[in-house]
Write a structure and sequence with these properties.
290 residues, mainly beta, single chain
Length: 290
């Protein structure tokens, strides 16, 4: 006679990894990533502190069905808001401090037929208070509410993955209207990976980011004197190769051809006018695990 548990529940308290998309919770483990650099339209490195973790409570539920497994996760707590977020939002325009508020993030994920088909929906409501230290400027509120839809199809030798996101973000309640904004960004990527010779894998991916759906080309942004138009979008064509000669060793290399600088870290490129719209990048990585 066989026994199995159809429902599994647990909870945790402390610093938790945020459950969104397919890769965020394991993004720091090279052996779990399909490429050296994750699709930057979804997994921003320039606002890494906000995306990666939060401090609070997480609830986890797993239900085993006849056709697959459904998993749900809910996190409640305060997001991490490091200097990378302040620089990306250009909060240096005002003197103040960033005070994270109670926020929530949730994901529902379904794995069909042993993982042959995987689908997930992720949503977050992130809030923070911006306490102004500038005379005559009131406090303001930051909000970020992304929706991410994920789908993957797996076969023995290849996988096809796609994710799509709508990201509404903004600042409100400052008494100076020039400091407030509300935008909805759009992101998506399509990725194909192929496994061969047992320990090799190659990848091709097209990754697209638009910072503001109402100004996809960035022309209005540039016309208002805010910076180059190409800082408002990025289209990235990636080719990658991985070799795992030993279970504890992985070598990887990849090439990126990018049109736009929408996801370049502002902290590394403070003068956007000095950046080029079209640029390339080679990456190489040696990963070891023990």
């Amino acid at each position: 006679m066989r026994y199995w548990q159809r429902r599994y529940e647990k909870s945790g308290l402390g610093r938790i990894k945020n459950p969104f998309g397919f890769y965020n919770q394991t993004r720091d483990v090279a052996f779990t990533r399909p490429s050296i650099l994750l699709p930057q339209s979804i997994y921003f490195d320039r606002t890494r502190s906000l995306a990666l973790t939060g401090d609070g409570l997480t609830l986890y539920l797993e239900e085993r069905l006849d056709s697959g497994v459904i998993r749900g996760q809910l996190g409640l707590g305060e997001p991490q808001a490091g200097d990378d977020l302040s620089q990306t939002l250009q909060l240096d325009r005002i003197a103040g401090t960033f005070d994270p508020q109670q926020s929530a993030i949730a994901q529902v994920r379904y794995e069909h037929d042993g993982g042959r088909v995987v689908a997930a929906v992720s949503n977050a409501k992130v809030k923070a208070r911006i306490e102004s230290h500038h005379p005559g400027v009131s406090d303001g509120d930051f909000y970020f509410t992304p929706w991410i839809f994920s789908l993957q199809y797996n076969q023995e030798l290849w996988s096809l993955t796609a994710e799509y996101a709508l990201r509404r973000s903004g600042i409100k309640n400052f008494n100076q209207s020039s400091l407030n904004f509300d935008t909805t960004g759009e992101s998506w990527y399509l990725q194909y990976t192929r496994r061969f010779y047992d320990d090799w894998q190659w990848l091709i991916r097209y990754d697209s980011l638009v910072s503001n759906r109402n100004d996809a080309s960035g022309k209005a942004y540039e016309a208002n004197g805010q910076g180059p138009a190409h800082t408002q979008f990025a289209d990235d064509l990636t080719f990658g190769l991985q070799w795992t000669p030993h279970p504890q060793v992985m070598l990887a290399g990849e090439y990126h051809r990018v049109d736009g600088t929408g996801w370049l870290p502002i902290q590394d490129n403070p003068d956007s006018s000095a950046t080029s719209r079209r640029w390339s990048m080679w990456l190489f990585q040696l990963s070891l695990r023990f």
